[in-house]
Amino acid sequence: MTRKRRRPARLLPALALLVAASPLAAQESATAPGVTLDRVRFGQSAALTGPAAALGQGMRLGIRAAFAETNAQGGVHGRQLELVSLDDGYEPAAALENTRTLLREEQVFALIGAVGTPTSRAAAPVATDERVPYIGAFTGAEFLRDPQQSPTAVNVRASYFQETDAMVERLRSDLGISRIAVLHQDDSYGNAGLTGVRLALERRGMELAGRAFYQRNTTAVKSALLHLRRLDPEAVIIIGAYRPVGAFVRWARKIGFDPVTVNISFVGGDALAADLGAEGAGVFMTQVVPSPTDDSLALVPQFRRALARVDRSATPGLVALEGYVVGRLTARVLDATGPDLTRPAFLEALASLTRVDIGGFTLGYGPGDTQGSDRVFWTRIAPDGRLVSVRSLR
After folding, report:
1. Measured between alpha carbons, how far is residue 24 from residues 14, 63, 106, 180, 392 in Å?
2. DSSP category for residue 280
3. CA 356: distance to chain centroid?
4. How far apart are CA 208 and CA 121, in angstroms?
5. Which domain holds residue 193?
6. Global confidence as pTM
7. 248 with 184: CB under 8 angstroms?
8. So what's the pLDDT on residue 3?
9. Nearest partner of 59 among 270, 237, 355, judged by Cα
10. Cα–Cα–Cα angle for 155, 183, 160, rounded to 5 degrees
11. For position 246, which CATH number holds?
12. Phi, psi (rounded to 5 degrees) for 144
């Protein structure tokens, strides 16, 4: 269900999506905002329109699937899980305004499924100031993994530093590559990935071959491409989103510039493969969840069934799978918290979960440890345009 509400003209239009079918309870609980006798309300600010829309839409879809699955089983301690989603277009100012709206007007219990480092940079401090759980952001930024900076953050995925370390190691050990350059988005997300690459190189006694950058929410990558071509790297690690990356790969191959190309998970692997098709053959990506076709984990068929219940036309994808894991984790923490639900109790319950098995995909937390998974997976665009799992870059 989509609800309309007034928004300042300077902001992107908002989209409010309610997941639970039950109406708002008439009697509000005294335990915490967003909590009543029969519901818990969560708020999401994410890119639902614009060049990064597939990422926000994927996270929302996965969370919806997990919440609907939980609700069909009776909810958690008798409470149905509800999601309110607002569009920020992957812009920090809109994310900040949405966060304030979700907390003050929509009265959500917690924030969930944010998309991006620059948007989280704007929104997470509000969550910290108001002691609101900031759950499952689609970013590997380090500041969300520092309990001093973000004490209310609840992370699922491996960090960007872990992804970039895996990239440098595989390029060196699998392919013998030493000249590595970086193309990055010119903001906190791009800088986080760039820092991760630099650190990974330094640990191995290597130096960065050079870098180039582009502006967020654009596909203006030609100047960066020409600069990188002059540097003549053997590999380019890209810290970007799927549309500018797609433009970069097309232009690079058109002018005969063909280094090994590796993308960080935020690129949106499914969206990039759909955008490039066969033109993207050989492009690599790190991932932080298993393939949505890998039935060796019970998680994957569980995800596909849950997804089909909320949208039969949806194609199971990596971003939606991550959102589904975030939603499943949230339900598990709510269960561990007990019926007397408060924000501090939720975060305390999280710290007690040293092992959370979600269909064979294991997460672990503890005091001072707010990141559930350290795993990094690999995918490549095949000659027919499909995104396939790989174990080696050879």
Report:
1. 20, 20, 11, 54, 51
2. G
3. 19
4. 26
5. 161-287+377-389
6. 0.91
7. no
8. 39
9. 270
10. 15
11. 3.40.50.2300
12. -75, -15
Q: Residue 191 CB: number of other CB atoms within 10 A?
A: 17
Measured from the Cβ of residue 60, the count of other Cβ atoms closer than 10 Å reads 25
State phi, psi for 251 to the nearest 5 degrees: -65, -40
Q: Which residues pair with 42 in a beta bridge?
A: 83, 110
Pairing between strand 356-358 and 361-363? antiparallel
Give a yes or no: residue 369 inside a domain: no
Task: Give the residues across from 379 on adjacent strands.
Answer: 285, 389
β-sheet bridge partners, residue 262: 237, 284
Within this chain, do residues 326 and 339 fall inside the same structural domain, yes or no? yes
Domain count within the chain:
2
Strands 134-135 and 377-381: unpaired
* 176 and 51 in a common domain: no
Whether residues 75 and 39 fall in one domain = yes
Close Cβ partners of 130 (under 8 Å, ≥ 6 residues apart):
103
CA atoms of 332 and 323, how far apart (whole Å): 14
Q: Which residues are bridge partners to 261 per DSSP? A: 236
User: Tokens 């699922």 identify what position?
Assistant: 156
Render pLDDT for 52-85 as a digit per residue (tens, 0 to 9).
999 999 999 999 999 999 999 999 999 999 999 9
98 with 207, same domain: the answer is no
Answer whether residue 372 is part of any domain.
no
CA-to-CA separations, 162 to 77, 195, 371, in angstroms, rounded: 36, 11, 12
Query: Rounded to a whole number, what is the largest CA-CA distance in the chain?
Result: 66
SS3 181: strand
Burial class (CB in 10 A: 0-12, 13-18, 19+), 2: exposed
In angstroms, the CA 56 to CA 127 distance is 19
Q: Is 10 helix (H, G, I), strand (E, B) or coil?
A: coil
**Cα 2 from chain centre:** 23
Residues 58 and 182 reside in one and the same domain: no
Our CA angle for 98, 100, 106, nearest 5°, is 80
Tens-digit pLDDT profile for residues 275-326: 999 999 999 999 999 999 999 999 999 999 999 999 999 999 999 999 999 9
Q: Which two tokens stand for residue 353?
A: 């979960």
Query: Up-side HSE of residue 238: CA atoms within 13 Å toward CB?
Result: 29
**Partners of 6 in beta bridges:** none
